Amino acid sequence: MTDKVSRKDFLMAAGASLLVAPMALEGLDRGQRAPVQHLGEQRAVVVDVTRCIGCKACQIACKVWNKLPAEKTEVSDGEFTNPKFFSPITWKIVRFKEIGDYDEDAAGTGGLKWRMLSDNCKHCLEPSCVSVCPAAALWKRSDGPVLYDLDRCVGCGYCTMACPWGVPRFDDDLHAVRKCTMCHDRIDQGLEPSCVSVCPTDSLQYMNLEEARRVAVDAEANGLYTYGVDEVGGTSWIYISDVPFSEFGLPEYSTVTQKGFESDILVKFAGAGLFVGGAILAAVKLYAERREAIMKSGSEGGN
Amino acid sequence: MSEFVWGPLMATYLFLGGLAGGAYLISALVDLFKGEDYEVLSKSGALVSTVAVIASVVVLLLEIKRFEVAPLSFLNAFRQFPGSMISVGTWLLTCLLVVSVVTVILAFFGGNWLVRKIVDVVGIVLSLGTAAYTGLVLSYCRGIPFWGSPFLPALFTVSGILTGLTLAMLMIPVAAYIMPKALNSFWELYERKASYVGMIGQTEKYCQVLTVVEIVLLALYMGTTPTTGILLGGSSVSLLFYVYIALGLLLPLGIGYLNSKWEHQGKDMMIVLSAMIGQVMVLLGGFILRYVVLIGGQLIH
User: Fold this and answer.
1) Pairing mode of beta strands A93-99, A176-178
2) What residues of chain A, 127 to 146, have a C-beta less than 8 Å from chain B?
3) Which CATH number characterizes residue B186's domain?
4) Do the domain assignments include residue B169?
5) What whole-number distance in Å separates Cα of residue B266 and Cα of residue A91?
6) Omega before A83 within 30 of 0, i.e. cis
7) How many Å separate Cα B121 from the centre of its chain?
8) Structure ipTM
9) What are the CA-CA distances from residue B66 to residues A275, A301, B5, B7, B59 (Å)?
10) Which end of chain B has less Cβ packing within 10 Å, N or C?
11) Upper half-sphere CA count for residue A53 (Cβ side, 13 Å)
């Protein structure tokens, strides 16, 4: 019995498996793209940008309730968003945005619009952070909050990269990540999240998720922009605004959930693998044939 | 708070993981398709794979720093399969380690040929999976568009195979020196200098094919990632990127071309030495590639 596998058999088997892989993965992709249908008893927060006056009471309330210390920050570029980024001890940021160009002849604010957006963890319906965590340290509670267990967190930082909004932040002292918990301890006591409870203009409103989505649909019907109804499969924090959310630096995302996103990458990678694998096998085969031909002609010449 | 959550240690983990996959793949393919002269390469590949997997796990533990939860975290990671890509990687690396160790035992102490072939085939699947994992683990990060190209895992896979092959080649004399009895076939091969130089020449051809494919994939990756500017601007990251292209891709290609010329002129020692320089450059380039991609993605996070 020979010790070797025929090159032809190997090439055929490799080609067949590369052809079959994308089809199998395509099936997997369809299976994981089911829309969110069962909202259950999930709670949500609607953030109405048109009502926000930028008082930052929500930002302070978050710090106070969660016992998060202050941190040194900088104001730069005429930017009133302060601090600019989430951190292990800053879970809530009010983003300030000046929209439009100032026209001294225009009445009122000179054509300028000031808009403020109270930003934090969106508590996705199918969270990327939960999906990628190798330690099951993060989970989505049935009533909405995305929570985490510091004792289970291994500090790999994968969730900080996977989150579409870069919300979980790595704490160098704890070697673990921290983020907004939607004040789950208050929710357990029948209270609203602390940021919602202090909002003086009802820009933040705590309600059932189904109701929140209805509010958003109504807002869209009135020509307003919404964020969080469809993005990444939906979130428990739904935003309404009269200016596009790109103004606040919120990226555009499709309705595809993290699992759907992963399947997309995998299917495309399988396609790329088919191309690359085929190219390498063809190059190796051509090289082997050429080498064989050279050796053959050499031995014939020698004879 | 750190500027970068993932730094040089994570880049090393990804580099070693890809290299381990590549080294085992070469070991198995050589065992399946090549003759006796290449036995040393097969053995060296299995050894490199074993050491690289162990080293990658050690580096990962150093990166996460939470030694107090490390044993538990491994158990948790196994249980999260296949939900988390890191969990998939944990399984792949563990299985690859087992297969590599079995291969080393079979190769050095002998064993049933059918068992060896079965282990080879299982190992090929695992090694390709491990090399691909090192790219997929980044591509799944939705928050970092720089990594969200399907060509990134393909690029890392090919780079992993290339670095695995070069380190396996580079380690042949070292392994033979450390274990002269186990690798006595190397000394026999070394006596027949033309055979040894011929093997270097032929593996260099495969390296050239892989390098060209890597260049094509790099171009495709840069063409499909929305924030390529980070690699082409004037930052220190872009400087490193140019070093990777010059030293990790173009220089080894040039050395391979020179060696093919010297092969006909019988300059055996020159071929051996320049091939070693090229192999070191490939390894350096492989590491820089991971580092640049890792840091570049976090710069614009």
Assistant:
1) unpaired
2) 128, 131-137
3) 1.20.1630.10
4) yes
5) 68
6) yes
7) 18
8) 0.89
9) 41, 67, 14, 16, 12
10) N
11) 7
Q: Tell me how close the Cα of A5 comes to any Cα of chain B, in angstroms.
A: 6
Quick check: A134 and B80 CB within 8 A? Answer: yes
Nearest CB among B73, B141, B220 relative to A161 is that of: B141
Q: What is the CATH number of the domain that holds A177?
A: 3.30.70.20
- Our count of domains for chain A comes to 1
Per-residue pLDDT of chain A (303 residues; tens, 9 = 90+): 344 555 565 555 555 544 544 444 443 333 333 334 445 589 999 999 999 999 999 999 999 999 999 998 877 676 788 898 999 999 999 999 988 877 778 777 777 889 999 999 999 999 999 999 998 899 999 999 999 999 888 889 999 999 999 999 999 888 899 999 999 999 999 999 999 999 999 999 999 999 999 999 999 999 999 999 999 999 999 999 999 999 999 999 999 999 999 999 999 999 988 888 888 888 878 877 887 787 777 666 655
Predicted TM-score (pTM) of the model is 0.87
Q: How many domains does chain B have?
A: 1
Residues of A with Cβ-Cβ distance to B5 under 8 angstroms: 157, 160-161, 170
Domain region containing B159: 8-299
Q: Which residue has the tokens 């080609």?
A: A15
